[in-house]
């Protein structure tokens, strides 16, 4: 049975397991839209370079076993040395309070499933849920039809969440390939501030396919940072859609650090809805073997006097494949827009490939927009310079690659996270460095 058929076959049973009936009709409508189009193929322009056939040809369990035996030691290995963080742990889709450390005050935090069932939050969901997520995409419709796992967080006006929040999504004890539809909703009201770290980890030899949708609303003078650490196993697939809507004078950052996972597709949309908005998107990808990582970004400059900054670095070896498609749309009324977009890549092996396509669509005449991409190998003169000073070829290559990737993490202000990314860089580059 194809995954398309599995999705349609399991939906009635899935609805029967839920209590939030007010979403049933929207779930059925989303499934209908998905059924009409099905999964994208390489014939679709947006998936021209990304073949997901490997994902869609497998059988999956839509109802993961809840039992687990995750130990504190296993969880400790995933931490960032974050004694002063809050952390939220989901195992097999369920929030595990006994493994979590939640001290969030003056804010509303709930598991997504609980929030859906809470009548007190119905008006909030009516106002925000699925209002900025694209309605014409296969994966977002599929997520709406099946979403159950994830979290809801609302940070009230002028509340500063001092501790970063690390959200873990773990899968364990699954005998079959497992399909998760994760949904997150973050609302950061006027003058508020929050920092989220998100990571996914599969502890089984069976495959995990995660279809994740996140909606972020950042209000006036608010700040929201979302950091994605993607360092999962070779039996993991991830398709992520993140939508961020910003109001005037707000700042939103999404950083994506990708080191592991078999096939990863990151879709990122920023929507400007006021003046003096700042949006930051940074990415570092280091992959090998036959991994595939695809970054598709879009910034919708709908209002004047706003800035966006995109900086994605990729290092590819063996037979890995990278894709970058970054779009910037500037509305005719969005004068004084300042948009920067850059994608730089290094290929370390003859079998490694990158398809990169930066795009600008500008309908205003008083703007400052730039974009560019590079694909190449390490600078031979710089490599010679380091080797002439007694540094081995392997370490010289690693130092140059580290310097190449480093500027894409300059805006990380969480020190343990920055150290962790530096360690992962060193590990992937197979060199010992002092930090």
From TrEMBL:
NCBIfam families xrefs? sufD (TIGR01981)
Matches recorded under Pfam families:
SUFBD_core, SufBD_N
**Segments forming domain SUF system FeS cluster assembly SufBD N-terminal:** 11-167
What does the record give as the organism's lineage?
Bacteria, Pseudomonadati, Bacteroidota, Flavobacteriia, Flavobacteriales
| SUF system FeS cluster assembly SufBD core domain segment(s) | 175-404
Q: Record's family? A: Belongs to the iron-sulfur cluster assembly SufBD family.
Question: What name does the UniProt record give this protein?
Answer: Fe-S cluster assembly protein SufD
């Amino acid at each position: 049975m194809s995954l398309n058929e599995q999705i349609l076959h399991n939906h009635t049973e899935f609805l029967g397991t839920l209590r939030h009936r007010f979403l049933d009709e929207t779930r059925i409508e989303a499934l209908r839209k998905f059924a009409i189009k099905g999964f994208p193929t390489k014939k679709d322009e947006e998936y021209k370079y990304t073949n997901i056939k490997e994902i869609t040809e497998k059988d999956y369990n839509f109802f993961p076993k809840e039992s687990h035996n995750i130990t504190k030691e296993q969880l400790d290995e995933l931490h960032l040395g974050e004694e002063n963080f809050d952390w939220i742990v989901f195992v097999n889709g369920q929030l595990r309070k006994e493994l979590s450390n939640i001290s969030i005050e003056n804010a509303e935090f709930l598991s997504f499933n609980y929030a859906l069932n809470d009548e007190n939050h119905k008006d909030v969901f009516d106002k925000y849920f699925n209002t900025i997520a694209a309605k014409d995409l296969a994966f977002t419709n599929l997520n709406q039809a099946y979403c159950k796992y994830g979290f809801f967080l609302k940070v009230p006006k002028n509340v500063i969440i001092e501790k970063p929040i690390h959200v873990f999504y773990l899968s364990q004890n699954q005998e079959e390939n497992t399909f998760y539809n994760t949904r997150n909703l973050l609302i950061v009201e006027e003058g508020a501030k929050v920092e989220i770290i998100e990571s996914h980890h599969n502890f089984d030899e069976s495959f995990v396919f995660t279809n994740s949708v996140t909606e972020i609303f950042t209000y006036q003078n608010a700040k929201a940072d979302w950091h994605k650490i993607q360092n999962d196993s070779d039996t993991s697939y991830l398709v992520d859609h993140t939508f961020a809507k910003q109001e005037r004078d707000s700042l939103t950052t999404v950083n994506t650090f990708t080191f592991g996972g078999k096939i990863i597709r990151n879709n990122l949309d920023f929507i400007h809805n006021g003046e003096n908005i700042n949006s930051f998107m940074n990415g570092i990808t280091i992959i090998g073997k036959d991994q595939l990582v695809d970054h598709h970004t879009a910034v919708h400059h709908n209002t004047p006097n706003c800035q966006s900054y995109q900086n994605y670095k990729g290092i590819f070896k063996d037979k890995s494949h990278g894709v970058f498609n970054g779009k910037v749309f500037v509305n005719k009324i969005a004068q004084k827009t300042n948009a920067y977009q850059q994608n730089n890549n290094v290929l370390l092996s003859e079998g490694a490939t990158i398809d990169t396509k930066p795009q600008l669509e500008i309908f205003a005449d008083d703007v400052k927009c730039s974009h560019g991409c590079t694909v190449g190998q390490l600078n031979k003169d710089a490599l010679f310079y380091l080797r002439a000073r007694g540094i081995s070829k392997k370490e010289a290559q690693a130092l140059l690659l580290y310097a190449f990737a480093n500027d894409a993490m300059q805006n990380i202000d969480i020190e343990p996270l920055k150290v962790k990314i530096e360690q992962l860089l060193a590990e992937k580059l197979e060199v010992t460095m002092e930090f």
